[in-house]
UniProtKB/TrEMBL annotation:
This is DUF4116 domain-containing protein. Residues 22-58 are annotated as: Disordered. It holds the Pfam family DUF4116. InterPro entries: DUF4116 (IPR025197).
Amino acid sequence: RRPMPALLFGIAASARARRGVPKAVRLRGGPSGPPAGAASALAAGGTGGAGADPAERGREEQLRAVAENGYALEGLSADLRADPEVVRTAVANAGSALQYAAPALRSDRELVKVAVAQDGYALSYAAEALQGDREVVEAAVAQTGFALQFAAPALRSDPEVVKAAVLDSPHALQHASETALASREVVLAAVARNGGALQYAAEGLRADREIVKRATAQFGGALRHAAPALQTDPQLLRTAKRAEKRSVLRWNVILGISGLLLSVRRAVRWLTSWRRRSR
């Protein structure tokens, strides 16, 4: 047998010697204690976030979690759900996570504004006082007009607030008060965007020729929501028929473009496959 080189002999001897030393002692660096520098690291809180308080590290982790998914707020402790920074981070990601915030924070005007700007439906979780706050409600209906249903009655009667809502979602008109439904300006704004909103207008406005004409020009089927006397009006019937033709033409164009895009996509796939086979 060839003699073992001195270096390998030394390594083997060291390994045999360490077999007699308990594992815990070896991990600490030997019987004399931890290796140089380890004591200071342990005193500072160990590795991985040295010097950081465990509670603070946990808070930072939860902050990152709600920043990625605001609804993670639901599973946090009561203390964190009452933490303004944590809740603000959550609602900036998912406005309706406001429902999991502590009651005191659902009364925080600035925080609620952040929530409704992200998701107008978050208005339903705001404190009652803020549902009557004009600025908060305007921010909510600008995000989605249907948030109007959660506004205080006084604001659902406000022509400017309702108009802002129907400009985003014409069918939000159904959540307006009787006063707003009788507002000619509000109803005109709604039917100009979607003629079907005529069905929510006050009876008197459904007999208004100009409003019905505007609604019918946008959507021919709106004529059936007009007052009976206008449903048989020859001019309005022609307007409705033209609107229906435009609608059919629009859908034909959309379907044609969709079919063309599908054909192009198939052609690209075939060409790519052919090139691969040709290599």
